[in-house]
Amino acid sequence: VQLVESGGGSVQAGGSLRLSCKASGDIFDNLVIGWFRQTPGKARERISYISRDGNIEYTDSMKDRFTISGDNTLNTVYLQMNALKPEDTATYYCAAGYGNGFHALQPPAAWGRGTQVVVSS
After folding, report:
1. If you write DSSP's letter for every residue of 1-40 in order, what string do you get?
2. What pLDDT is attached to residue 57?
């Protein structure tokens, strides 16, 4: 499976962005796609995942302002980010795996190359 992220950019605090992750290749019914983020010097942080049958889970600290969704016909997963804060500045990655939940992404079968999000105060 191959993944391509898009939608990153620069935004002021309080603003919103929607990231997209387009999947291609081995797309099976048990495919799980998740979003992660990373800042230099810090461990990669998981945000959320969605399965093709619509199961969703968030890391607790992310679920208030971030919403994941998917369009199976487009093989695309989205991450809507609202009320952005400067501490949300990071490179955002999507990852794909096969199986159930976050376990399917430990480790993932594939990573995208990432999209940069910069939130200014």
Report:
1. -EEEEE--EEEETT--EEEEEEEES---TTEEEEEEEE-T
2. 95
